[in-house]
Model the fold of this input.
Amino acid sequence: MVVCGDDGLAYRLAAELRGVHRERVTLVVPPNERTLRPPVVGRARAASAALFDRVVSATVGRAGGTGAATTAGGAATGQRADGERVLEAADLTEAVLAEAGVERAAALALVYDDDETNIRAALTARRLNPRLRLVLRLYNRRLGQHIEELLDQASALAFGSGAEGGPVASTIVLSDADTSAPALVATAVAGTSKVVQTDSLLLRAVERLPDRDGQITARGLCTLALLSATVTDPAGPDGSEGNGEQGPRLLPDDEEVRQATGRAAVVLEQVSSFGGPESAAARRGVGRVPPLASLFSRRLRWSLAGLVGCVVALAVALWLVTGIHPLGAFYLTLLDLFAIDNPAIGAPLGRQILQLLSGLVGLLLLPVLLAAVLEALGTFRTTSGLRKPPRGLGGHVVLLGLGKIGTRVLTRLRELHIPVVCVESDPDARGLATARRLRVPVVLGDVTQEGVLEAAKIHRAHALLAVTSADTTNLEAALYARSVRPDLRVVLRLYDDDFATAVYRTLRAAHPHASTRSRSVSYLAAPAFAGAMLGRQVLGAIPVERRVLLFAAVEVDGHPELEGRTVAEAFRAGAWRVLALEGRADVSAGHVLEKGDRVVVAATRRGLAELG
Done:
């Protein structure tokens, strides 16, 4: 396996392939002086440190005495004791790819943060090895679809022009933002289902608390995980079972669930067709056409309602005074209101007074109508602009940052009909267009400045989701939000896992009754990229405290653990569980899995590696 990248995802992916799937990996990274910050990936840090200590830090043309050398392609290379290679190259040229062994590799992952770099390297790699399985990290979905078709077509033409044998090449385009957004949303919103979507199914996982007897009564279709013994005080970010707690248990069997008294559980509540009413409602989202009530302010609507009430009262009074038909009284009142009728000369005194009152109401109506017209025009003019948080808003999620990750998180929140207020400091951020289209309120300003979070109604918010690319900004926002609302649910995106561990423990100690979670995008995205490199389709990941449960689509053919077995027999506790046949949700435990079936499984990282 060859992994090329310039940020934490590359290091995390290499550690995932090496530590979980036991694959030989060649890692291509920029020179140390080109790296903006050190690669820190939590528990994989010790292994990575041992690896990078053996890598030459010299520039091109210089070789030290540490077993490293400079290749002909201008890349500095190092070798680990277990055979893993690390190349340092400023540019991912054809020579560097050849030195990395792309011509002999089974798969290549291009996970640079820049889409253009990944595309250019993919075109070169496909020319060097038409059989190579390519995994690209691209943010642009539409462009990714075209690149997949182009590269697969190039591979097919190469096979047709004389290439024989070898595995069928494939190109898979993934986005770390798409992979991690559902998990981040589920972490921020308590009680909201954790959702994994396939082309035809909607899988939902929810947390269930034990009843008075300590048992989980509503188990749904199956139990995916047992949480730590103390739900309000789970294991720390490093995954350790501190304070004598019993850590989470993924994919337990029925006997374990019955014996796990007093422990909350994550259960699969529903597996339904993706075209069902719930998904249809989610797809409808927020309409692009604003409702009529949003055209006018509350004060103006009350003014109009008061004038209508006055007109009705005058019509009733005219009916009682003159004795004419109620419709005729209403008609005469409108004529008086718009000064169309003749003066009531010679009419009874009551009729004359009512005519004067109607004219007065008509005068009051003119400025109200003018204000309504101007306000409606202003609303239409600013429909394409950014909305401000409305008065009285509460129970919403404050989303900090509208970059790559923040945009995907915003879309996911709105699909689940969760109210959101965004905070962004860059007026040209890519997510502002999405917020404008979804008509989501946005506060433009630096979150570190006083008054910005207050403008986002943080004191009435349900949760804060800080997903900017700066760890210090996310931390500062979390600390300030906690000073305003000590019980606020806070979710932080932190690059450095060691830093995240320290922050988590400190915030938990300072606010024991509040919920604090730290999530690394690379930590959530790496399993999907690793699965794609191994030829598996990882549909998504659900965090269970600081562990991850993977959902993948697996072909039954070629897997003796699945083929010829029933759904119940194919289950291995703590490793994997068959949830459904792709396209079918009503699969019984006695259904026999046959060749040609494609199943959706929930698996641990190691279980998915064994299943491969």
